[in-house]
Amino acid sequence: MLYHAHEMGRAAAMQWRWLTETNRLLFDHPFNPLAHTSAGRSLASVCDVFEDLTRRYRKPAFGLEHTVCDGEVVAVREEIVMRKPFGQIKRFARAAPRPQDPRLLIVAPLSGHFATLLRGTVQALLPDHDVHITDWRDARLVPLTAGRFGLDDYIDYIIDFLTALGPDTHVLAVCQPAVPVLAATALMSEDSHPAAPRSLSLMSGPIDTRRTPTVPNELATGHTLDWFRRHMVHLVPPPHAGCMRPVYPGFLQLAGFVSMNLDRHVDAYMRLYRALVQDDREHADRHRAFYDEYLAVMDLPAEFYLETIQRVFQEHELARGRFYHRGRRVRPEAIRDTALLTIEGENDDITSPGQTEAAHDLCPAIPETRRGHHQQPGVGHYGVFNGRRWREHIAPRLKTFIQQA
């Protein structure tokens, strides 16, 4: 019933949003004398902030229309390479043919935010790579007729995606996908699959959360699986296409994210209010660019959410050598020809240092010359794949590793 109450609350707030927007337009109109007073600007700013806080944030666009290759501006267009019910592969096709560039599949996390959260990741790698990304679908939009989607299905999707892209594909798994992508690589390696990744880069992923557990890790182990099922799983209400599908709602995930740094978010909106009063459009635009992405969330299939909690965070199956895919034991020690790079952030409070590096202990057959680890000083979880240090330090390290592989 929580999901239904959430939707009813949004519907009830709609009239207040209309009223607020009308007042904002009134007090912000240049022909209104009040618009040029401090009181008028304050009222318009309050209305503006209220609109930001109460609207439903839709899936953002990547908006990457150009890149720069060898000093030349090159147009970029998005293509769908493969589409499945719960996700698709999106390619950022460059107008100038560059067949020598490595093909790269970025596996975006299925953890509440859309793949566009990795816009900065794609942007930094686009000049030197043929970039593809997994574009996961909001579970509330997937009809019940599409069936379930659990952790085993996720691994199947990764194998299908790599098979579609073909041999010599490099893979970058960001955060949550590290475990299923490593499992898929192990299965493909053991089967001598021709499309097994040429290289695998795991970025801030929960390979072994027993190492220096973080607050989210302790939350997962501090409650039973039944507690998560009773409190975190809800049915999608009408009129959404996925009506009656059990999901972990995106708004609950967002509430968890916000509560971890509540003071920071409150301060951000106070600064937005002051910027609007002072007509500081540059600050307001920066704020909205971040929060338009941060507040856009998606629902997760309940099966995938619960199985990830249980198998990755509670039972640590992969780290303990007890991870099975459809009855078959996953053997990371079978990975021999795929180069392995792990990347972590020094100040990561979601996936702490050491949790991703643990992948090297699970893959002893990879030669030392084809493995590497990078810990970036001074960055948290988000800064590992976005921002200045990502562009200036981590991305060059990743590019070099892919080229050498």
The tally of beta strands, per DSSP, is: 14
Described by strand count, sense and barrel closure, the largest sheet is: 9 strands, mixed
Helical content, roughly?
Answer: 40-55%
Principal-axes geometry comes out as globular
Rounded mean pLDDT score: 89
The number of domains is: 2
Structural class: alpha/beta
**CATH fold-level assignment of the largest domain:** Rossmann fold
Give the topology string: H per helix, E per strand.
HHEEEEHEHEHEHHEEHHHEHEEEHEH
The whole-angstrom Rg is 22 Å
Number of helices: 13
Task: Kindly describe this structure.
Helix content is 42%, strand content 18%. With 405 residues, it is an alpha/beta fold. The chain has 2 domains: 2-56 and 250-294, no CATH class; 66-218 and 300-404, Rossmann fold (3-Layer(aba) Sandwich), CATH 3.40.50.1820. The strands form 3 sheets. A 9-stranded mixed sheet has the order 1-2-3-5-4-6-7-13-14, sandwiched between helices. Helix 1 packs antiparallel against helix 2 (38-54), helix 3 (119-125) crosses helix 13 (388-404) and helix 4 (151-165) packs across helix 5 (178-190). The protein is globular and about 75 Å long. The mean pLDDT is 89.
List the defining traits of the structure above.
18% strand, 405 residues, Rossmann fold, three-stranded antiparallel β-sheet, alpha/beta, nine-stranded mixed β-sheet
Summarize the SSE layout with pairings.
Layout: H1 2-28, H2 38-54, E1 66-69, E2 72-84, E3 87-94, E4 103-107, H3 119-125, E5 130-136, H4 151-165, E6 169-174, H5 178-190, E7 199-203, H6 215-221, H7 225-232, E8 234-235, E9 246-248, H8 250-260, H9 262-277, H10 281-294, E10 300-301, H11 302-314, E11 324-325, E12 328-329, E13 339-345, H12 359-362, E14 371-376, H13 388-404
Parallel strand pairs: 4-5, 4-6, 6-7, 7-13, 13-14
Antiparallel strand pairs: 1-2, 2-3, 3-5, 8-9, 9-10, 11-12
Helix pairs in contact: 1-2, 2-9, 3-13, 4-5, 4-11, 9-10
